Amino acid sequence: MIDAASLMTIASAGIVGFGIVSTAMLRGWTGWLEVKRLQIEGGKRRAPSSPSVMGSEIAVLKERVRKLEAIASGVDF
How far is CA 18 from each of CA 6, 13, 36, 60, rounded to the nearest angstrom? Predict the structure, then answer.
């Protein structure tokens, strides 16, 4: 039969293990929330402030697409 000291040791180890796992999960959760918060803030920061900025970004993207299409068709610059 299990004596009281062994039972206390097993119970203490279980409680400490549970505390360690809980702390690790809490840190992971707060880290994940921080990542999501930064992603949301980053998306807001990248939004164009005026239509002229948006137009210039579209022009840059069109130029990049044109260059990629030229590369795909084998044309050198």
Answer: 18, 8, 27, 54
